[in-house]
Amino acid sequence: MRPHEPRSFEGPGDINLDDPDEVNYWAERLEATPEELAEAVQKVGPNRTAVGLYLGGQP
Q1: Which of 16, 24, 37, 57 is most deeply buried (CB count within 10 A of its CB)?
Q2: 47 in helix, strand or coil?
């Protein structure tokens, strides 16, 4: 799978954008806004490691 291809499934290591508490937690942890987090998930999929790498942080 290439980084620009979104994933079509969710797993235990994924960020759930439907959960506001989870969005706020990961946005704060990755030093991003909720909007930046959502954009990252759209670009690389919901995997928190991939999102962290995309945003330049550590998951």
Answers
A1: 37
A2: strand
